[in-house]
TrEMBL record:
GO terms for biological process: DNA replication. CDD domains: AAA (cd00009). The keyword ATP-binding applies. This is IstB-like ATP binding family protein. It comes from the Bacteria. It comes from Priestia megaterium (strain ATCC 14581 / DSM 32 / CCUG 1817 / JCM 2506 / NBRC 15308 / NCIMB 9376 / NCTC 10342 / NRRL B-14308 / VKM B-512 / Ford 19) (Bacillus megaterium). Pfam families: IstB_IS21 (PF01695). Signal peptide: none annotated. Belongs to the IS21/IS1162 putative ATP-binding protein family. Keywords: ATP-binding, Nucleotide-binding, Plasmid.
Length: 255
């Protein structure tokens, strides 16, 4: 039986090797030019496909992480952030803390790069194969509050509990009522000791009690969060303010 390109392409398509199927002639052409052995030809195709599948997985995980924007650690200009050294940033980038289920608290006033840093670490983790989920505190409380009522919230909570890294942005931005504090405690307790959490906040943990309300629950929550934690203080002027676009081009009155 004469095997045609179309027959091979159909088999490839059946096996979900879609891009190889479409570009089969090019693969054959390259392999002929390189005088590939049978093994080398097969290896070329399989490597292409495994790389493609890996890339797709990363894209899917990036989408599921629901970052508000995608900025990487490479985009983070360490020279603009005096309170973090290049060495510390590299240490964070290695993600040993994530393997050891450490939490991070990124503290500082608005605009200093807390969210950017959290997202950058999240993207790094995704490229290393971890499942990451980003959520603002308000959205988290909403999801916890309505998980028994809406399928969407239920999915969010399930995904959070399944993640290797959870990023909670702007924690303690709002006061919680008793029911919300209970739900938040329950949630932290479920992640405790197995999932890393990165918190960003403009208030230090010592002030969180004011917003959680109940002192007993506050202690229980903090106990679990700070069992293994690194607190990183970011400061300086707001990067947004320093790098804002201006209408007049210059703020100097002499020009
Ligand atoms: P916040 O601390 O309020 O969470 P963000 O992380 O959202 O601030 O930073 C505000 C903006 O400034 C973002 O667009 C972020 O990318 C940018 N930014 C802040 N710090 C840096 C930095 N060191 N290098 C590059 N961009 C930065
Ligand atoms: Mg922020």
């Amino acid at each position: 039986m004469r095997i045609t390109n179309e027959m091979v392409q159909q088999k490839l398509a059946e096996l979900q090797f879609k891009e190889v199927s479409v570009s089969l002639s090019e693969f054959i052409h390259t392999s002929e030019k390189e005088q590939d052995s049978y093994q080398a030809f097969l290896y070329r195709i399989l490597s292409f496909e495994t790389k493609r599948r890996e890339d797709n997985k990363v894209l899917k995980r990036l989408k599921l992480a629901s970052f508000p924007y995608q900025k990487t650690l490479e985009d983070f200009r360490i020279e603009e952030q005096q309170s973090l050294s290049t060495k510390q940033l590299n240490q964070l980038r290695e993600l040993t803390w994530l393997e050891q289920a450490y939490n991070l608290i990124l503290l500082g006033p608005p605009g200093v790069g807390k969210t950017h840093l959290a997202i950058g670490l999240g993207i790094e983790a995704i490229y290393r194969g971890y499942k990451v989920m980003f959520l603002a505190m308000g959205a988290l409380v909403r999801a916890l509050n309505t998980q028994d009522i809406t399928r969407k919230s239920q999915t969010i909570v399930k995904r959070l509990l399944n993640a290797d890294l959870v990023i909670i942005d702007d924690i303690m931005y709002m006061a919680m009522d008793q029911q919300e504090a209970n739900l938040f405690f329950h949630f932290i307790n479920q992640l405790y000791d197995r999932t890393s959490i990165v918190f960003t906040s403009n208030k230090g943990p010592e002030e969180w009690g004011e917003l959680i309300g109940d002192p007993g629950i506050t202690t229980a929550i903090l106990d679990r969060i700070i069992h293994r934690v690194e607190v990183i203080h970011l400061n300086g002027d707001s990067y947004r303010m320093k790098n804002r676009s201006t209408i007049f081009g210059s703020i100097s009155v002499h020009e």
